């Protein structure tokens, strides 16, 4: 009897989920499982769907595809930066400095990795030397409008991440403009750049009275 029940269960497992399965006790007292009941006393069995088993994609080695070289795997595993942005100057900022000086501050997440540096791009070209500092000073920037960007480079100079280029406007005050705003005094000549000694007025000579 046990063997008949096991055989019936095996038949049940092989039955499509869309089929209806019934069970009843036959004249000999045996429990019967079937999809075609022959008696009105057969009871329908509710079949639960089997849990889905995720199928892993075949590995390249099993498909005969050679595995990628270690160097390629190292490039894929290279640290990525989720964030890189310019804090200063702000987008479309107007900067006024006689020497054309601009302070650029950046933020990255994660922080700068070992062997990586920040590099400033002005109008698409590297400006100054790369630095690991998040605060970089640009000197002698020409007057006018420029496009500023910052990128992260590795030890080989390869670009790993780059910010979008943003506009800025350098307004360099000329020496003549500075003299008009703050006229040169006698003690300023030779001290202030806009007050060179050659422009110092000649002092009138004092004539001694004749005795």
TrEMBL record:
The keyword Signal applies. It comes from the Bacteria. Residues 1-19 form the signal peptide. Keywords: Signal. Residues 9-60 form the DUF4124 domain. Pfam families: DUF4124. This is Penicillin-binding protein. It comes from Pseudomonas fluvialis.
